[in-house]
Design brief:
Keywords: Signal. It is built from two helices and six strands, in the order αβββββαβ. By secondary structure, the chain is an alpha+beta fold. The chain starts with a helix and ends with a strand.
């Protein structure tokens, strides 16, 4: 009787797809980043939540980026070249930004590139996010 019960339970798991679970590191849950052209999440009518794919690259549509807030579990970086999320000596990377993000890029210093406070407010052109 024990072997029959074990067989029924095992076949139930197989039919549910639980015997070979998907590797959770290969899939990222929905999410992304909340961005605004002004500091402190303004103007709210222009702010956008961008659903990102893992490693996705998004070009900022505004002249400035004032606020950036990755969703929980995501880390985002800013780059200086439009349409380019590949780090190079000419395409600086801000380094990782985690939840809750940076509300005021006009005064923020990444502490990584050696650029002055507010550099990323005017120079961020592209955002890349990854599920961490």
């Amino acid at each position: 009787m024990k072997s029959f019960v074990t067989t029924v339970i095992a076949s139930s798991f197989l039919s549910l797809g639980l015997a070979n679970p998907v590797n959770v590191t290969e899939r990222a849950p929905g999410g992304g980043v909340y961005l605004c052209p002004g500091a402190n999440w303004t103007p709210s009518n222009l702010c956008q939540h961008i659903d990102m794919t893992n490693g996705g690259c998004w070009t900022i549509p505004w002249q400035t980026l004032g606020s950036i807030g990755p969703d929980a579990g995501w880390v985002c970086s800013m780059f200086v070249e439009p349409n380019n999320c590949v780090y190079s000596s000419g395409n600086l990377n801000s380094g990782g930004i985690y939840t809750p993000g940076v509300a005021d890029l006009t005064t923020w210093n990444d502490g990584f590139t050696g650029k002055w406070n507010g550099y990323w407010f005017t120079d961020a052109k592209t955002v890349q996010c990854e599920y961490a």
